[in-house]
Specification:
This protein has a single domain, classed as Rossmann fold. Helix content is about 30%, strand content about 25%. The protein has six helices and nine strands; from the N terminus they run H-E-E-E-E-H-E-E-H-E-H-E-H-E-H. Helix 1 packs across helix 2, helix 2 packs across helix 5 and helix 3 packs across helix 6. It is globular, with a radius of gyration of 18 Å.
Length: about 270
């Protein structure tokens, strides 16, 4: 993997990806942040050596480098998931690349279902902790200790200072920002009524199919991390209705302006 990382980093440096400070992973329906960036360079994933390729139809597949609020940023427009057939090492490979290019902070967004029924679709949740239900770890491979400490501490995976800043920005801009625990499952099928009940019992406030692998690797690399979920559906096992993917994307789009304010104001403060 070290040889592959070197090849990828060298390619992107040649393309002009010059010392980004902040990495951003954009989730489902949250792509409009791109319009706020002064784009300097962009490369399709399928042109980048050793990079996976996004296969989800509503995920773009571009790595973007530019300026946002005066900071150099590198943005993943489209991410990778276990349910696409990738390994956890594939999914988190871009985080390792962004760190080698120079980022110190990783910001993540995703779409999630609300397990906590006090949370409503179209609202946002700041992730304060997570539960990994994906069945393995992106650090569980031979030679991981060559890339960082094998036994990575996860007592505080989400940066407290950044989270407090997010909360201050939300309060100032009258944005409803819940705090909660995000549970990451494999997917791509959605959960049964019994699974929603289980998730509530074990302490999850929201459930999705991403983010946790990237956060684990970011901690492995000693990056500061924060993540925000847009709640796209309400997971009430006693009144469960079939989920419409188009409705999920529409709810993500509805919350997008608030997400953009949070991210832009946070980046301005870093």
């Amino acid at each position: 993997m070290i040889k592959q990382i070197t090849e990828t980093v060298d390619y992107l440096k040649e393309k002009g990806f010059d010392n980004p400070e902040i990495g951003i992973i954009l989730g489902t329906g949250l792509g409009q942040l791109i319009d706020e960036i002064e784009i300097i360079k962009q490369v399709s994933y399928n042109h980048i050596p050793n990079f996976p390729t996004a296969t989800v139809e509503f995920h773009k597949g571009r790595l973007i480098y530019g300026i946002l609020e005066g900071k150099k940023v590198i943005v993943m427009q489209g991410r990778f998931h276990l349910y696409e057939g990738y390994t956890l090492q594939d999914i988190t490979y871009p985080v390792r690349i962004m760190e080698k290019l120079g980022i110190k902070t990783l910001l993540v967004s995703n779409a999630a279902g609300a397990i906590n029924l006090d949370f409503k679709k179209g609202e946002l949740m700041l992730i304060e902790d997570h539960i990994n239900l994906q069945g393995s770890s992106p650090l569980a491979f031979k030679g991981v200790e060559l890339l960082g400490e094998r036994f990575t501490d996860m007592s505080a995976p989400y940066d407290e200072t950044i989270n407090n800043t997010f909360k201050s920005i939300a309060k100032k801009n009258k944005i409803k920002l819940h705090e909660g625990v995000y549970s990451s499952v494999v997917g791509p099928q959605l959960e049964t009524k019994a699974e929603y009940r289980m998730l509530k019992i074990i302490g999850a406030d929201a459930v999705g199919m991403s983010t946790v692998p990237e956060v684990i690797v970011a901690n492995h690399l000693k990056l500061k991390v924060a993540a925000v979920s847009v709640l796209t559906d309400e997971c009430d096992p006693d009144n469960l209705e079939p989920v419409n993917i188009a409705d999920i994307i529409a709810n993500a789009a509805k919350a997008e302006p608030d997400m953009i304010i949070l991210f832009k104001e946070l980046i301005k403060s870093i």
